[in-house]
Design brief:
The protein is built from nine helices and nine strands. Strands 4-5-6-7 form a four-stranded mixed beta sheet. Strands 1-3-2 form a three-stranded antiparallel beta sheet. It has a two-stranded antiparallel sheet with strand order 8-9. Helix 5 links the parallel strand 4 and strand 5. It binds adenosine-5'-diphosphate (ADP). The site of adenosine-5'-diphosphate (ADP) has 16 residues, from strand 6, helix 6 and strand 8.
Length: 213
């Protein structure tokens, strides 16, 4: 929200109801100047207009803060780029990728790029404190593997993925598409994104920043 949009929202809240002309007078501008701002606030649902009465505050802004999933955000609009390594990559290479890409979870793919598993920070740490040669051990050997991988789809509501993160106590869920040719019991997945705890936290922060008045 721009400063002026926030100021308009404040004014409408304070006045109860107020006409477009009165808002324009308040800001010493013409009605036309405010048209875009009023339409942003109206389409966001924060204010509404009644004929012959004027603009009024809907209260939606408070509800959105209480329920960040009110408008049913979908995975497709929030997914980040997935960071993948081949299952033949060494644990050493996986650790380097994790640092270079600044992520906490890597998705492991087969030679044909379909999802094979997931490797987390602690999976790598566990291997690193063992006696094995990190350059020799392939990530395929230490990853959590399919079919034990929790996945999500682009059309899934974001809240469902947030629930998965909590109930399975994981930091990240790969966003997948089912590849043609797999069976129902053994689906083959292409990895097209990731939803992480950061994704969900950012949703809260964005809402709080956008809605703060
Ligand atoms: P960390 O192990 O660094 O705390 P996580 O909590 O994400 O990170 O991972 C916990 C365990 O769950 C790890 O062994 C990891 O391989 C596994 N894991 C992570 N993400 C998934 C997922 N989407 N589906 C299944 N297992 C997962």
């Amino acid at each position: 929200m721009t400063n002026r949009q926030q100021a308009i929202l404040e004014l409408v809240k304070k006045e109860g109801t107020i006409t477009g002309d009165q808002i324009a007078d308040h800001f010493n501008v013409t009605r036309a100047t405010l048209r875009a701002d009023l339409s942003v606030l109206t389409s966001a649902g924060f204010i509404d207009a009644r004929p012959r009465v004027g603009y009024y505050y809907t209260g939606l802004e408070r509800k959105a803060l209480r329920d960040p999933f009110l408008d049913n955000p979908l995975v497709r609009d929030f997914k980040a780029v997935p960071i993948v390594v081949k299952e033949t990559s060494s644990v050493y290479e996986a650790i380097c990728t994790m640092f270079l890409e600044d992520v906490g979870t890597l998705y492991v793919v087969k030679e044909d790029n379909s999802l094979a598993g997931v490797v987390s920070r602690k999976d790598l740490l566990k291997t690193a404190i063992g006696k094995m040669d990190l350059q020799e051990v392939p990530v395929g050997m230490i990853m959590t593997r399919i079919p034990n991988i929790i996945v999500c789809y682009e059309d899934d509501p974001l809240i469902e993925v947030a629930q998965k993160l909590i109930s399975f106590q994981i930091d990240s869920v790969p966003v997948v598409r089912v590849r043609e040719g797999g069976s129902k019991d053994n689906p083959v997945y292409d990895v097209v994104g990731r939803i992480t705890k950061t994704t969900i936290t950012r949703r809260f922060v964005d809402l709080a920043n956008g809605l703060r008045v």
